[in-house]
Write a structure and sequence with these properties.
Layout lengths: L1 E6 L7 H15 L3 E6 L11 E4 L12 E6 L7 H5 L3 E6 L14 H24 L2 E4 L2 H6 L8 E3 L22 E4 L8 H14 L5 E5 L8 H11 L6 E5 L3 H9 L3 E4 L8 H7 L5 E4 L4 H5 L4 E3 L4 H13 L1 H19 L3 H11 L3
Parallel strand pairs: 1-2, 1-4, 2-3, 4-5, 5-6, 6-7, 8-9, 8-11, 9-10, 11-12, 12-13
Helix pairs in contact: 5-6, 5-10, 10-11
Length: 356
């Protein structure tokens, strides 16, 4: 029995890559041989799976095979996925709305993203016709697909185990510095985090803002916009853009921060929030997209970006030991729930129930 996962590129450090690698582990535990079919050659740690390129695929397949297409928008040539025999499962990760690219990048990029969004939803309409099941990684993504007639829909979180580290005993380690992790892309609202930090550092002048991420070349102008904001706010020595960090280095930076703050306004899941839960520091996030569902009862959500009020709210939760310990405890509990999710049992049950 074979499972083929189709995706544009298998990366070790993003949510889709973590999910695909985790699913491969689950399917191997169920007795399947696992394969990845990608458009871009694999770069990363060795894995116990066979790799194929979509343009050079010659493996023998049959009707008992399972094919999973990881989908986050148009780009992967899914004709092979459609035409190969076997059960077809769409693993839906979300589509970023084009509106976030208006006035944050160039006009050409904004119009290109509008076309990308439209094409992606057209592809979803086509995929809904021939896919046997759709597995969404969040309730938010499940609801995004509610207008389409997908058969056998399920919500299964990102397939990953999360590390837990001891909490810091004080709220003031590393001078009340803040951190966030994500690509430097407009929907993450890095500009809002930087602006918020300009209020925060007035309260804590020695604090730093650790912006851990990667530049996306296609989003021309956005990163330059962020560095312009930093200069205008005279925060050059306090806001640090940290790129090229390993997973362990990222977790160390988060652990050595006082709080993790997300201003993002569109997430299909937001893996870094759960990684921050495990780092033993309080997590605060704007309530948008999948974030409330991902956080469950952990951390603190905020519903407006009134920076002065937000400074006071975070300050109160960090400085009052009872509130801080309660927050971290609730985050650990949520993380335990994710780590205890019975992926093998759930997936085996879905397959045994028959999804055609």
């Amino acid at each position: 029995m074979n499972v083929f996962q189709h995706l544009d590129e298998l990366k070790d450090s993003d949510g889709v890559g973590n999910d695909a690698i985790g699913l491969a582990d689950v399917f191997r535990s169920l007795g399947y041989k696992t394969h990845f079919i990608t458009r871009i050659p694999r770069k990363g740690k060795p894995l116990q799976s066979t790799f194929h390129l979509v343009g050079n695929f010659h493996e023998k397949t049959n009707a008992n095979d399972i094919h999973i297409l990881h989908y986050g928008g148009a780009g992967y040539p899914y004709t092979l996925f459609q035409n190969l025999p076997g059960i077809k499962i769409l693993r839906f990760h979300n589509i970023t709305p084009a509106k976030f690219y208006k006035d944050t990048t160039t006009e050409d990029i904004f119009h290109a993203m509008e076309k990308f969004e439209s094409l992606s939803y057209l592809e979803l309409a086509s995929l809904s016709i021939f896919c046997d099941s759709v597995w969404c990684d969040s309730q938010f993504n499940y609801e995004t697909l509610s207008a389409y007639d997908f058969r056998n829909p399920y919500v299964i979180p990102i397939c990953k185990s999360y590390q837990k580290f001891p909490k810091k005993e004080t709220d003031s380690h590393n001078n009340h510095s803040l951190a966030f992790v994500g690509r430097y892309s407009p929907q993450k609202k890095w500009e809002d985090l930087i602006t918020f930090f300009s209020f925060w550092e007035k309260e804590y002048p020695d604090a730093k803002c650790y912006c851990i991420g990667s530049i996306i070349g296609a989003f021309d102008g956005y990163f330059e916009r962020l560095t312009d904001i930093v200069r205008k706010l005279q925060l050059e020595n306090k806001v640090q853009f940290l790129m090229g960090k390993s997973d362990s280095e990222v977790l160390t930076i988060i652990q050595n921060s006082s709080a993790f703050v997300s201003m993002s306004e569109h997430e299909g899941f937001c893996l870094p929030i759960l990684e921050a839960f495990g780092c033993g520091i309080p997590v605060f996030a704007f309530a948008a997209g999948a974030i409330p569902g991902t956080m469950k009862e952990g951390g603190k959500l905020f519903h407006s970006k009134n920076y002065s009020s937000l400074v006071q709210m975070i300050k109160n939760n960090l400085s009052e030991k009872h509130h801080r310990d309660q927050m971290i405890g609730s985050q650990y509990k949520v993380l335990d729930d994710y780590n205890d999710f019975p992926f093998s049992k759930v997936i085996s049950g879905i397959l045994q129930s028959g999804i055609k």
